[in-house]
Design brief:
The chain is mainly α. The chain is about 55% helix and about 0% strand.
Length: about 230
């Protein structure tokens, strides 16, 4: 089958296939709102394993609580977040985000009542908060409907023949995906979690196409022998 014979994938159908293959993920990247927000900054340009080490250090020093974190010494905070990499840059970004949040606190009604795009625009004006981080804070921290577009999302849909997933700007990819689903926090959470799981288990940088639930829909999977299929 030639790549041109593949229809552009329906994001909703792709997620239905992944849900059938993997089941519900019940994924929430943190136990509290503060953990989620801090984690969203620390995970920039690094993997979650490194971030988890930093989060453990913060927890050990009692810094995953609102008041202690605000009052924390920079030297201690730097030492705690060191495992997350580029820690001096991330300290500045974290301090900027805390400064934005501090006048309201984490549980102010405005974070649940403001229009999503208004709140997103505020976050994007904070130093070091880009679109993916802002959407992660919105979806997981404030439980607002914002689709998180990460490298896994672009790679998976790109291999499935969606050229827009690779070539388009972040906000264009986000808009396309959000228009494909009802605006629902639980649905966006589940969709992102399924994409992450599938990308880590099968649709890797060197993909394991054998047994992939999306292979029959995937131009990349059909046209590549995937010599790494037997490597786990």
């Amino acid at each position: 089958m030639r790549m041109a014979e593949f229809a552009e994938p329906s994001p909703a159908e792709i997620i239905r296939v992944l849900l059938k293959a993997y089941g519900p993920q019940h994924w929430w990247p943190g136990e509290t709102r503060l953990e989620i927000i801090v984690g969203a900054v620390l995970t920039q340009n690094t993997n979650w394993l490194n971030v988890s080490h930093a989060m453990d250090r913060l927890r050990e020093h009692g810094l995953l609580a609102w008041e202690p974190l605000l009052a924390s010494d920079d030297a201690l905070l730097l030492e705690c977040i060191r495992p997350a990499g580029v820690y001096r840059v991330k300290l500045r970004r974290l301090r900027a985000l805390l400064a934005y949040l501090q006048p309201f606190g984490l549980d102010h009604p405005r974070f649940g009542e403001l229009p999503v795009e208004t709140l997103r625009a505020e976050l994007l004006r904070v130093y070091g908060i880009g679109p993916e981080t802002a959407d992660s804070i919105l979806l997981y921290g404030f439980e607002r409907p914002a689709f998180v577009v990460d490298a896994f999302t672009r790679r998976m849909f790109g291999r499935l023949g969606a050229t827009w997933a690779i070539r388009a700007q972040y906000d264009d990819v986000r808009a396309r995906l959000m228009s494909a689903f009802p605006q629902d926090v639980a649905l966006y959470n589940e969709a992102h979690a399924l994409i992450v799981r599938h990308s880590k288990e099968l649709c890797r940088a060197r993909p394991l196409c054998s047994g992939c639930p999306l292979q029959v829909r995937c131009p990349y999977g059909q046209e590549h022998s995937c010599a790494t299929n037997t490597i786990r």
